[in-house]
Amino acid sequence: MLVTLKKVIDMAENGNFCIPAFNVYNMETVMGVAEAAEELRAPVIMQVYPRLFNEEAGYYLAPVILAAAKKMTVPVCFHLDHGPSEYEVIKALRSGASGIMLDGSEHSFEDNVALTKHIADICGTVGVQVEGELGHIGSVNDDAMDEFTNPDDAAEFVRRTGVACLAVLIGNAHGHYKKPPKLDIERVKAIRKATGGIPLVLHGGSGIPDDQVKAAVAAGIRKMNIGTDVCCAFADGAKAELENPGRSLAVDLFMKPSIESVKRLAEEKIRLVGADGKA
Amino acid sequence: MKEIVGIGACVMDTLITVPNYPEEDTKLSAVSFKPAGGGPVATGLVAAQRLGAETAFIGVLSNDSGGKFLAEDFKKYGVDTSLVHIENGFRSFTSVVMLSAESKSRTCVFDKGNLPELTLDSAQTEALKAADLLMIDGNEMNAAAQAVKIARENGTKVLYDAGGLYEGVERLLPYADILIPSEEFALGHTGCADAMTAAEKLYSKYRPEVVVITQGKKGGIMLDAGGMREYPALPADVVDSNGAGDVFHGAFAAGVIKGYDYYKCCYFASAVSAVKCTGIGARESVPDFETVRKYLKENGYEL
Predict the structure, then answer these.
(1) Quick check: is A10 catalytic?
(2) A32, A259 in Cβ contact below 8 A?
(3) pTM
(4) In A, residues 75-134, which contact B (CB 8 Å cutoff)?
(5) Of A7, A252, B143, B249, which has the fewest Cβ atoms less than 10 A away?
């Protein structure tokens, strides 16, 4: 069933676990995540990059996500990941998104507050909540990253914008980590305390050692993004099938191992963040 | 179930036609003195009902003389008032419109009254869920915001008659499926110098199914997935243009209910508006469907 961002985040907050947020790119990744969530009775988020809404792909992908949500018996939120501006946000809302991330972290603090508040107001009209970002979470390939999210800044940001959850920079990054990251778990606790318990979001969840993920969830991470691992799982399935001498040329059959591979990855992450059996 | 429901301003107008605009501190005998119902969505609903759609107004009216007149006026034209809250002891939204026969000027003095804000009840919510189309005009902003949420969740299309640059319109614009601003609104909101650029900007930013910019006597333009098109202002011996825009929006809504494509909705609504202007009164001169069909045929258009 399609639910709002607040619904799944509240479930995580009340149950002291974390919602896995899988980036989906096509029908097969949606199917893999949906099957895993159903089998493990886990609430999940399926999220989409804004570029997919700027290209034709979003036009086709959004109905696939909504169809999956309609069929699923566990709660699923259709979320925009890293929306940079009102333009992409409105496109996502028009496509049926039930959660929105506004990433204003490349702006100054004041501009980030103003833009995020504006988007939260627009989305609030139709009962859709917003994830904000404070402290720019760059790629693992970036030479320079922002300083880690400051708890006092986070408190002011949350108070002035009305976001439902906040993405923070605590040693995480997008992409494949060159060496295992070291998350600042004490900072997670400090941000939670300063903000009065705002649910926090961990981006760059692919490749973070399991013990650190568990510690982060215990400290108050309520949504973890998994993008790169979904891509890798999909590619692994396709690669194995390419190397299979008996493979079928029919694309639907060729894709089956990829769906299965994404499903296994999703199951693994659902269990890791403690979302299994929580629907 | 009503096909079209509307939320917006509902105004008791007193139309006073004077030979010329009076000097200050003088007395003047009026040519005519006439009470009339007004308000963008309210008059639009009357037009849609007259053209064959089933309509209902969702709002708050007073039980003062103005409110009673407005409720009766809706009933006179067949607009359902069962979803209207009647509140005792409040002042209706009223206006006095002075029409100068000499200069054709239109001078309006209004009192917004003190009616309480509309909060949607369960019957109104159910009507919204069941309706095909919701009309809003930027008045009753909070109830309109509540309504677009219900509309979005239940597949009810939203037609936004954007005439006034009211505070908070940004909350509604992203949820209009059919966005019909006046040229003044479109240029004022976008900062563009011309209507076509404004239409492109509104269409690109808010992603409605269609943007229609009304340009009064010039007709207007529409932009949808099929591209930009102009629609004509059809010929008419204008007697009274008051409410022509409101009637256009209501007729457009009726066209949507009839299943017309958006270009056909434009010229259908333009024709209804033109015929309406040949008689006096925003509501009583709205033609019926057969009259419009004949008028369009005379002017080379088929429905």
Answers:
(1) no
(2) yes
(3) 0.89
(4) 86-87, 90-91, 93-94, 118, 121-122, 125-127
(5) A252
